[in-house]
Design brief:
- The protein is mainly alpha-helical.
- The chain is 70% helix and 0% strand.
- The longest helix is centred in the middle third of the chain and has 41 residues, at 6-46.
- The radius of gyration is 18 Å and the shape is flat.
């Protein structure tokens, strides 16, 4: 059993975003949201749960798949 459930983590994230919104206004809220999403992506990448090469292949940024028939 983990120390925190997803519900508790979601509640904590919501409370932190609310504090950022109160203290920093809308700009602080948006900045906290963007930095939180970036931190989540980095954490998932470090845990091996996010494969950036797969994302670039899907977006067409890798140059692979150009020889496919459309």
């Amino acid at each position: 059993m983990s120390l925190s459930s997803n519900t508790q983590i979601g509640l904590l994230a919501g409370l932190l975003l609310a504090i950022a919104g109160i203290v920093g206004g809308f700009g602080g809220f948006v900045l906290a949201l963007i930095l939180g999403a970036l931190g989540l992506a980095v954490g998932r990448w470090l845990d091996g749960e996010l494969d950036l090469s797969e994302l670039s292949e899907r977006s067409g940024l890798s140059g692979r798949g150009r020889d496919k028939v459309r």
